[in-house]
Amino acid sequence: MTDRRQRGPRRGQGELEALVLSALREADGPVSAGWVQERLGGDLAYTTVITILTRLLAKGAVTRERAGRSFVWTPASDQAGLAAHKMRKVLDGQSDREAVLASFVTSLEPDDERLLRELLGQAGGEGED
Amino acid sequence: MGVFVFLPLVLPFTAWPIARLAEQRLHPRTATRLLTGVAAVMAACSTVSLGLLMVVGTAQLPGNPLPDGWSDPEVREAVPYDEVAGKLAIPALLAVLLACARTGWRHGRTRRAAHRALAGLPGTAVAVLPDETPYAYALPGRRHDRVVVTTGMLARLEPAERRALFAHERAHLVGRHHRFLLAVQLAARANPFLRPLCTAVAYTVERWADEEAARSVGSRRAVARAIGKAALASRSTPAGTFAGFAVPGPVPRRVAALLGPEPVPRSWPSVFTSVGLAAWGAAAGTAVSALSSANSAVTMALILYAATPL
Fold first, then answer.
1. Which residue of A103, B168, B190, B243 has the fewest CB atoms within a 10 Å radius of its CB?
2. Nearest C-alpha of chain A: how many angstroms from B85?
3. Is residue A22 predicted with pLDDT exceeding 90?
4. Which range marks the domain in which residue A101 is found?
């Protein structure tokens, strides 16, 4: 185990995992293991940080993606927000995205709004915002 | 062979009135299948015809790899205006192939990017994204399909309307509607005259999913309300500016159709109605297009075979 080489008193696994996780949560986005190590004040060896991150990954508490030759890590609780952010980038970057991902509704023509409100009035009166 | 070799290039014109009638009068499922089939056959014929013209055009170029016999006067006689048509066909066919490849590539890239964006989430059938912008769509996948919807969209809908939204997107996935859409998009790239069919199928596919959703939630009004509210919620993006020409856009037409009676699915309408006339017209146009390009292809192959030095 790499933990044996660490300086200072030996800490429990749970405590180390919580430390790494809280460091990750303070990051603005996906960060490298090196960033986490620095954030923790160099208290842990790089390999230890990697070991803990890998263990957290197996538990589903973090996710990682490849960035160049290494990985960047994200806490899992932010996954939904991150996915939403990424999806917006996909949709915004696609000028003719309606051609690929058929969305529920397409954009309205100038006169459509009035017509639509009239129709919604017929459709049960719940149409008004 | 004569001018018949040009017919498949212009016959897609005949599909325009048909596309309009089919989208208004036929059951959306029938209309989608009919129009996609017509578009695919016509696009294939048009491309074959373009390929034949290109062979004749290329054979005249010095240093081309084709057999010398292919530029014989007998071969050139087979195509009217062979000088001009042959040379125009080369860039035209290249443009068609490039445009189709680009469309296919973009399709794949966007779908992969969307799947990658969702990679961190649990693999549920519905992915709810915390985003104020209201949008929803069906994301087909190789292993599992997903419905993507934002919290902004869900917040604006009543429970019955949410069910309608999910049923609509699921209908897209179950019916593999994206394949119809891709097919007509490729067809429109192969021959620009087929673009109205592309627009028509984009509409009939939505109508198809609307009808499936209405059946699955048991309320046409709930689906209509869901569509209307979703459209009004996401109206901030301004559409076209041609207010003078404005016919009702696809969204009000979908809502109006849902407030009307359920369309009756019929297998093949009688020729004595306007719908029947449209369907038969489409069939006839497609048949003529297919026949004339098959005729051109066979004739051309025979001529080229005869002209090939053994």
1. B243
2. 32
3. no
4. 1-124
